[in-house]
Specification:
Number of domains: 1
Number of helices: 11
Helix content: 40-55%
Shape: globular
CATH architecture: 3-Layer(aba) Sandwich
Largest sheet: 7 strands, parallel
CATH class: Alpha Beta
Structural class: alpha/beta
Strand order of the largest sheet: 3-2-1-4-5-6-11
CATH topology: Rossmann fold
Order of helices and strands: EHEEHEHHEHEEHEEEHEEHEHHH
Distance between the termini: 46 Å
Number of strands: 13
CATH superfamily: NAD(P)-binding Rossmann-like Domain
Bound molecules: nicotinamide-adenine-dinucleotide, 2'deoxy-thymidine-5'-diphospho-alpha-D-glucose
């Protein structure tokens, strides 16, 4: 492999992946990104022009996609509408990008016989009870709850069908909740950090007891690269770093790290259909492909993320007011 096409490479996880690839491999990268409200050209600032080309466009644009597939050896597909709260407000863009957009890419992969890696989420499996000791595995039945997760589940099933019916060279990964630099302020951790930086109290949905399984975005990137290099075609790999925490604990850690009282947060209106708990068993990825996470200590990764938002206000400030206005209108 020498040239990779990264869809959604100006988003949170895609831009972290591009940085990881340029730092740790010899591959060149083409980014295809529509620059929706969630995409930011500045997330790719400072990267070398001779190894990175940026193309603004829609993954649903067949002609554009076809021309780009001609120029690359592999495609890593991150582009998506990614926020559950938005999907409850206006599901349509989620169907267009996550389902139809993925279909357009799969057809191009079929025509060009291109190696294809599909990025997905643990949310396709639905949720677990808080006290249930079990975790998601590759054989957990699909049971998505939200418009977002149901469109991601649909896209996974399309990939599986294109592998079986047309023999495309594809793999899938389903990862747990990512944190780290360049994450949009609509998401939980950056929203609370930037709230504290602005003197606003953090907002916890419901009782704050919902559990998410946190992984640093750079560990997600190293896992994807491992699957791209060593994964078995047609296979699904779950990616997780044993990072289960409830939302209240995370907010208290943020407040404490930022020198605020641990209880200086508000409980607000819960998310409709709010998944209780996600938990990933990543044994297949670890034992078959030898992957290990590097950011073992969540408190350390969180402190570094807080520092990043403190130092990069010019990156997040332009989105902050509109994001908070959206939440305020819903009592969140
Ligand atoms: P994000 O919202 O930060 O970024 C999405 C990017 O896709 C943006 O740059 C946006 O401009 C681009 N995009 C959207 N629609 C497009 C289209 N039609 N054509 C081209 N580009 C388009 O999302 P993220 O959090 O970085 O998530 C990236 C991927 O990882 C998604 O597929 C998501 O489902 C998956 N994922 C996310 C997490 C998480 O914790 N954030 C966890 C597991 C999996
Ligand atoms: O599990 C992987 C998924 O993680 C990805 O597929 C999604 O793209 C990504 O957005 C994320 O989904 P979540 O819905 O879990 O993430 P979010 O950051 O929106 O919320 C995390 C938890 O925090 C969730 O339980 C809702 C809660 N929350 C969120 C916000 C924005 C709050 O309590 N307060 C908030 O202000």
């Amino acid at each position: 492999m020498s040239r990779l096409l990264v869809t959604g490479g100006a988003g949170f996880i895609g831009s972290n992946f591009v940085r990881h690839v340029l730092a740790h491999t010899d591959h060149d990268v083409i980014v295809l990104d529509k620059l929706t409200y969630a995409g930011n050209r500045d997330s790719l600032a400072g990267l070398p022009d001779d190894r990175l080309r940026f193309v603004q466009g829609d993954i649903g644009d067949e002609a554009l996609v076809d021309g780009l597939f001609e120029q690359v050896d592999a495609v890593i597909h991150y582009a998506a509408e990614s926020h559950n709260d938005n999907s409850l407000h206006d599901p349509r863009p989620f169907l267009d990008t996550n389902i139809i957009g993925t279909y357009v890419l799969l057809e191009a992969a079929r025509r060009h016989e291109t190696r294809f890696h599909h990025i997905s989420t643990d949310e396709v499996y639905g949720d677990l009870e808080l006290e249930d000791p079990s975790r998601f595995t590759e054989s957990t039945p699909y049971n998505p709850s939200s418009p977002y997760s149901s469109t991601k589940a649909s896209s996974d099933l399309l990939v599986r069908a294109w592998v079986r019916s047309f023999g495309i060279q594809a793999t899938i990964s389903n990862c747990s909740n990512n944190y780290g630099p360049y994450q949009h302020v609509e998401k939980f951790i950056p929203r609370q950090i930037t709230n504290v930086l602005r003197g606003i109290r953090p907002k916890l949905y419901g009782s704050g007891e919902n559990v998410r399984d946190w992984i640093h975005a750079d560990d997600h990137s190293s896992a994807v690269l491992t699957i791209l290099e060593k994964g078995r075609i047609g296979e699904t790999y779950l990616i997780g770093a044993d990072g289960e925490k409830n939302n209240k604990d995370v907010v208290e850690m943020i407040l404490e790290t930022m020198g605020q009282p641990r209880d200086a947060y508000d409980l607000v209106t819960d998310r409709a259909g709010h998944d209780l708990r996600y938990a990933i068993d990543s044994q297949r990825l670890r034992s078959e492909l030898g992957w290990r996470p590097r950011f073992g200590d969540f408190a350390e990764g969180l402190a570094a993320t807080i520092d990043w938002y403190r130092m990069n206000e010019q990156w997040w400030a332009p989105s902050k007011d509109a994001t908070e206005a959206f939440y305020a209108a819903k009592g969140q």
